[in-house]
Design a protein that fits this description.
Blueprint (H helix, E strand, L loop, with lengths): L4 E7 L5 H9 L3 E5 L6 E7 L2 E5 L11 H15 L3 E7 L3 H12 L5 E6 L1 H6 L2 E3 L1 H8 L3 E3 L8 H9 L21 H11 L5 H21 E3 L7 H10 L4 H19 L2 H21 L4 H18 L2 H16 L2 H14 L8 H6 L4 H6 L7 H10 L8 H12 L10 H27 L20 H34 L6 H14 L8 H7 L2 H13 L6 H9 L6 H11 L8 H7 L12 H13 L4 H11 L2 H26 L1
Parallel strand pairs: 1-4, 1-5, 5-6, 6-8
Antiparallel strand pairs: 2-3, 3-4, 7-9
Amino acid sequence: MTAQQEIVLIGKPNSGKSSLFNQLTGLNQKVGNFAGVTVERKKGVFKKFAIIDLPGLKSLRITSPEEVISKNAILQHAKQGKSIVFVASGTQLEDHLILFSEIADLGAPIILVINFKDELIKNKIQVDSDKIRDLIGCPVVMTNSRKGDGLKELEGFIEQGGFSIPHSVCRSAYDDFENGQYVNRYVETLASENPVAEREEEFLKRRKTIHGLIQSSVENRNAKTYLTNTKKWDQYLLHPIYGMFFFIAIMWMVFQAVFSLSGYPMDMIDASFSALSSFAKANLPAGWINSLVSQALIPGIGGVVIFIPQIAILFFLLGVLEHVGYMSRISFISDAFLRKFGLSGKSVIPLMSSWACSIPAIMSTRVIDDPRERMAVILASPLMTCSARLPVYTILIAVVVPDDSGAFIGMKGLLLLALYLLGVIATLAVAWLVNRRSKIPSNPLWSLELPKYRMPNWRNIFHNVYNKTKSFVVEAGKVILAISILLWLLSTNSPKSEEYIDQQFQSYQETASPQMNLSRDAFDLEYSYIGYIGKFIEPTIAPLGYDWKIGIAILSSFAAREVFVGTLSTIYSIGSEEEATVVQRLRQEKVMATGKPRYDLATSISLLIFYVFAMQCMSTVAIVRKETGKWKYAIWQFFFFLFLAYGFAFIANILLS
């Protein structure tokens, strides 16, 4: 093998392929997209070999956009003669080997990895790997990708170039062709857009052949009790009524944990950035650099970093649910319910992915076969509460809800859950509307594979939490850094002269009541460029209970929702001597005309409702346009959501005022 020769990692979903990829490459990997498309692929390095992890697929006889792209990549790699590591789940070996046989007939050199051997041992299932090797004609390695068992043997095969072309399962159907031409005919058959009778006959032959192989090489000594625990759990978790209650209870515990487990580290981070800001202000030379660093950069970045604990906890808990096999159960139990809105259980994973970020969620809609359903999910999924909304929610909830960290059932967690549920309801309503109005043809057929319940791969979970949290902080940090600098410039400069502002401040001090007393720094802010911009839009947002400062934060958050908190942190810390937390600063903010709290219950709930509906993310607009191919969908989505946000926020403010 030559240096950096590519080896392709292929397998069905739930085969442990990603775990094996992480075991082989460690942290020496990167995530990217296929050229020209938004489907994710991973690439890592094992010694002198480049390992490519293709998205999982169920068969080469598929139609979903994501799997078609993965299939085409497999056909291209096979045509180039690249080596393949095929990962199959040992507990679902017969089903996974059907896909293996399809890929084997492409004529590329392969190593077959049979994964989860620990579960095979536990369930007294004996797999004769030597016999399977003789029957299929390529190396077979038994592994446990979670703990790395069998990894050395696999690495040895890779380093020694121990790949070989397996025996054919269905090549006999092409015996009338000259040697080698069966590959071209087979590829042509796979490339056809619609199933033909020949492909149906070929699939039945594969299934019969693989069944015979399993019968001769796999012995299940515990057949009656195999998967008993999984079936017992599924009696409750898949129940049409109990299952929904379990789902709501599990998600409530997730959201409660986001608050209760993150409080202490968030307080530490907040105190650290406050101290850092004070240190910079006291030790840097007086002037614009001091002001920029202490009053813009540190508070702005701190407004994002403070939410790392909450975001990491959310990603961790969702990762655990996925690894144990519960996410697939959510798809199953929700299918009948989602059908009422024109969706299927296949939409659940993209929709729940939106709880992390709507951008990869919209990309993942390529797994949906039904074009109408896919469009409905693309247009509705940004209403699911993404992690960028989480900083806004947690800050505003903390402002209006007293500390309840010692309570078993806390109001903060319940309110956060209510906001998530409101997002779900809005998502389903918009999906129903799109399905009713759409003229896109529908193809509602869908199938689902339920994995066995198993212990999580903690290494993979923590690795994914690290990558996703890092991505959130880095990407948000770039935006916030630029916006913080811009806000600082706009807030420290004024179109009015210093003398004019002095005169206005003296007049204000003579007439202002004690409860409305503002510091000179706060007064200067109103006469800055940012103050004038805020005052210009204030009449539009005043019916919602917002002032010009909130308006500036809303405008800046159109770049990304989480910028809202960083903007408030920047605005309220400029020129301030206080080292209070963001929550304390918001609680202390007063309405100039009345002296009452600015962030009272009505205003805070109105803001929460606004951010439930508003599509405050230009990146999402761009990806919707890319995935739908038309600007009209992205523009309609943006303004329709903005209309909903304004309307419901207005109603909330009126009812609670």
